[in-house]
Write a structure and sequence with these properties.
By secondary structure, the chain is an alpha/beta fold. It has helices spanning about 15-25, 35-45, 55-65, 75-80, 105-120, 135-145, 165-170, 185-195, 210-240, 245-255, 275-290, 290-320, 345-355, 370-375, 390-395, 415-420, 435-440; strands at about 5-10, 30-35, 70, 85, 125-130, 150-155, 175-180, 205-210, 330, 360-365, 385, 400, 425-430, 445. Helix 5 packs parallel to helix 6. Bound molecules: uridine-5'-diphosphate-xylopyranose and adenosine-5'-diphosphate. Uridine-5'-diphosphate-xylopyranose binds near residues 222 and 229.
Length: about 450
């Protein structure tokens, strides 16, 4: 009999991952629980007004919800009913005490471990999904198995999905990683986890390691990706200074098979819940183990990223005659990337704050992230939030394109130009618009790395 599964934490990771596991394992019952009752209500909403936007997610939830996928706040019953427990609770960067600004805040994870221990009425396999610092599984193992009545085996199964492509990434992963204790019980638990994924993933793509390798791999993989983005953004600054074109440079660099074309797109810097957090975690780990040069090396990836948004605003300042006060500037896009409403660590947030310091009259438009933008910038007065791009652009002095939403290039840019104050400026920080066309219309155009 296939074992039932519960996931504690119904967020960006838990929700989509469990929906896909339920779809591909129709004979297993999959429960998703959360302490946030509003979130659970949204997952259960009759009109599928789900708490997160992710292309394809609604279809998978329609197919599975009420059949073998269930959302609830009843953590106790779920833990008792299921032998396999995924944990996808949030692990934000710690903002207080030891390791503040670097280490992960593990209070939600630890609270979850204690809940599991309190409610369990039998042996359990605990699978960590949230990105955690190396050796957290060992700490959880210690909490769970200290004077425990049952056996708890802790595995690490880091999630590599990217937001905006979560369902595709889950259905067609490059690899699935499962780390577990190198003991007989550990091997059995790893096999249980492998079985869940082998319902749709080729066995050779399911890689098994020890727990610490799995935990470190997640941090390292994200650090490598973040480093590529910072590297190309570092080259972008040099391109602007010299007259080289960063997109041309990236195209040629990426044609080298050893380097490859992905993650070489210069832009406003990386955002999202993972890159900054995971690199900071790596920095903290390096410092903890006295590897100070390695810590500084990875810290450079973050510093480069922070600098990118400052550079964008400085250049705009210069191009707008060294004063931005009272000018109307409209941000096109606020999400950290296209196809998501997520605004965690979004570069647009930092740009908005830098512009507010210059007393800009700021308008923000975004097809999916306006609610989150409003929440993130609640402490700033006078910002206008407008879902209609044409209305947002009216009488603006400049538009800064922050997110590469697919429909932005297809907007009627002539109409936008006509409604703006002149000289009208477009700063395309994603290099996704046709700059020549815009110049023909009359816009002054700025790009990244050109
Ligand atoms: C990332 C990892 O890709 C994923 O494997 C991991 O599980 C979680 O972190 P995510 O943060 O959702 O996923 O998005 P991703 O597509 O990696 O983009 C991260 C940021 O980098 C975005 O702000 C994006 O705009 C930026 N980026 C990405 C660039 O600026 N240039 C690029 O070439 C690629
Ligand atoms: P991620 O991007 O890692 O999925 P989210 O913040 O989107 O992170 O989701 C994490 C979820 O975990 C939130 O919905 C939060 O309410 C939930 N959560 C945090 N702590 C607990 C807990 N002790 N028990 C149940 N759910 C929890």
């Amino acid at each position: 009999m296939n074992k039932n599964i519960v996931c504690i934490g119904a967020g960006y990771i838990g929700g989509p991952t469990m929906a896909v596991i339920a779809k591909m394992n129709p004979d297993r019952k999959v429960l998703v629980v959360d302490i946030n009752a509003k979130r659970i209500e949204e997952w259960n909403s009759a009109d599928y007004n789900l708490p997160i936007y992710e292309p394809g997610l609604v279809d998978v939830v329609k197919e599975t919800r009420g059949k073998n996928l269930f959302f609830s706040t009843d953590i106790k019953s779920a833990v008792q009913e299921c032998d396999i427990i995924f944990v996808g609770v949030n692990t934000p960067t710690k903002m207080f005490g030891r390791g503040a600004g670097r280490a992960s805040d593990l209070q939600y994870w630890e609270a979850t471990a204690r809940e599991i221990k309190e409610y369990a009425l039998g042996d359990k396999i605990i699978i960590e999904k949230s990105t955690l610092p190396v050796r957290t599984a060992a700490a959880m193992d210690a909490i769970l198995n200290d004077h425990a009545r049952y056996n708890f085996t802790v595995l690490s199964n880091p999630e590599f999905l990217a937001e905006g492509t979560a369902i595709k990434d889950l259905l067609e992963p490059d690899r699935v990683l499962i780390g577990g204790p190198q003991t007989p019980a550990g091997h059995d638990a790893i096999e249980e986890a492998v079985e869940i994924y082998s319902a749709w993933v080729d066995r050779e793509k399911i890689l098994t390691t020890n727990v610490w390798s799995a935990e470190l791999t997640k941090l390292a993989a994200n650090a490598f990706l973040a480093q590529r983005v910072s590297s190309i953004n570092a080259i972008a600054g040099l391109c602007e200074a010299t007259g080289a074109d960063v997109d041309e440079v990236a195209r040629v660099i990426g044609a080298d098979k050893r380097i490859g074309p992905k993650f070489l797109k210069a832009g406003p810097g990386f955002g999202g819940s993972c890159f900054k957090k995971d690199v900071l975690n790596l920095v903290y780990l390096c410092e903890t183990f006295g590897l100070h040069t390695a810590a500084e090396y990875w810290m450079g990836v973050i510093e480069m990223n922070d600098h990118q948004q400052e550079r964008i605003v400085s250049r705009l300042f210069r191009e707008m005659f060294n004063t931005l006060a009272n000018k109307k500037i409209t941000l096109f896009g606020f999400a950290f990337k296209a196809d998501t409403g997520d605004t965690r660590e979004t570069p647009a947030g930092k740009v908005a704050r830098l512009l507010a310091e210059e007393h800009v009259r700021l308008t923000i438009t975004d097809p999916k992230a306006l609610n989150n933008a409003q929440r993130d910038l609640a402490d700033l007065d006078g910002i206008v939030y407008e879902s209609d791009e044409y209305k947002a652009a009216e009488l603006s002095d400049a538009i800064i394109l922050m997110t590469d939403w697919r429909h932005y290039p297809t907007l009627d840019w002539q109409k936008i130009y006509d409604s703006m104050r002149k000289p009208a400026l477009v700063y395309d920080t994603r290099n996704c618009l046709d700059a020549n066309e815009l110049r023909k219309i009359g816009f002054k155009v700025l790009n990244i790395g050109k």
